[in-house]
Amino acid sequence: MCIGILGQKIGMTQIFDENGLAVPVTIIKAGPCSITQVKTMESDGYNAIQIGYLEKPAKIAKKSEIGHFDKSGSKPFRFTKEYKVENPDEKSLGEKVTVTNFAIGQYLDVSARTIGKGFAGLQKRHNFSRGPMTHGSKNHRLPGSIGAGTTPGRVLPGKKMAGHLGNKITTIKNIEVIGIHEEENLLILKGSIQGKPGNLISLKPSVKV
Description:
Blueprint: E1 5-16, E2 22-30, E3 33-39, H1 41-44, E4 48-55, H2 63-70, E5 77-84, E6 96-97, E7 107-113, E8 119-120, H3 122-126, E9 163-164, E10 169-181, E11 186-190, E12 200-205
Antiparallel strand pairs: 1-2, 1-12, 2-11, 3-4, 3-6, 4-5, 7-10, 7-12, 8-9, 10-11
C-alpha cells in the first residue's frame, strides 16, 4: 500500500523518449521518510498514517516533539504529514517510506507552495483589462468602482482587488512518474511542478475518477 511521501524540488531538466522527443521533467528528492504515528478509527476517529521527513537535532526540538517521536523509535523530524488510508494496520511504527514504494507510470497528486509574487495589481492578479492609455485618461491600471453607494453601502466580501499574489498551497493532479533512481532517492515527474527549487513537496497516489 502506497500512502505518500515528502520530498524537495531539485529543479527541471529534459530527457529524450524512445522517439527522440524532448520531454520536460521535474526532479524530486523524495524521502526517505519514517512512519511516526498510526491513527485508527478506534483511537483517533479516522484512519491515517503520519510520516516524518528530514531529521533535526534533538537540542532544537521541543520535549513534546521528542516524546512523540520516541514512540516510533525515531529522531525528531523537521516536517510531518498525514495521509488518510483505509487499512492503517498494514503499516507499523518506524517503517521507512522511500521511492521504492512508487512505480514508473504511476500518477501522483503533487501539493506544494507556489512562488510568492508579493503585492500585485488587478491586471497581474486577476487578469483585469486596463483603462485607455491616451486622450487624457487618468485611469490606466486603477480598479475603478468597487460597489454601489447607498445599497448595499459597503464592499461585498470576496471582491477581486489588488493584494498578495502567490505563496499558497496548491495541488496539481495526475502527474506521471517516468523515472525512479533508488540510490539517490529521486523521482522524475513529467512536466513542471509549482514552487522554487528546495520547495517542500507532498506526493500521494492519484485517485482516478
